[in-house]
Amino acid sequence: MLGVVLIILGVIAMLGGAVMLLAWVSGRSSWFDAGVYDRPGRCKTDRQFLILYFMAMVLAPLLGGGILIVFGLSELL
Fold it and tell me: For residues 51 and 47, what is the distance between their CA atoms, to the nearest angstrom?
């Protein structure tokens, strides 16, 4: 039972990460727009935090979901 729950949570996390990745790449999301971070008067730190935002919103759900799926499969087998 725990294995199935872990697999489902992993799939949900990976889907969330994939949606955020598509939003980041397509440029349709106003959160990641270059105009938000490159406006006059904005400090350089805002642009430097983009990598942190990318890691938190894209990489962490993808990697965490993959780990949950692996643990779920190991529980099932």
Answer: 8
* pLDDT of 22: 87
Is residue 65 within 8 Å of 13, Cβ to Cβ?
A: yes
Contacts 24+ apart (CB under 8 A), 57-62: 57/17, 57/20, 57/24, 58/17, 58/20, 58/21, 58/24, 59/17, 60/17, 61/13, 61/14, 61/16, 61/17, 61/20, 62/13, 62/14, 62/17, 62/18, 62/21
* Tens digit of each residue's pLDDT (9 = 90 or more) over 37-55: 555 666 666 667 777 888 8
CA-wise closest residue to 32 among 53, 59, 14: 53
pLDDT of residue 76: 92
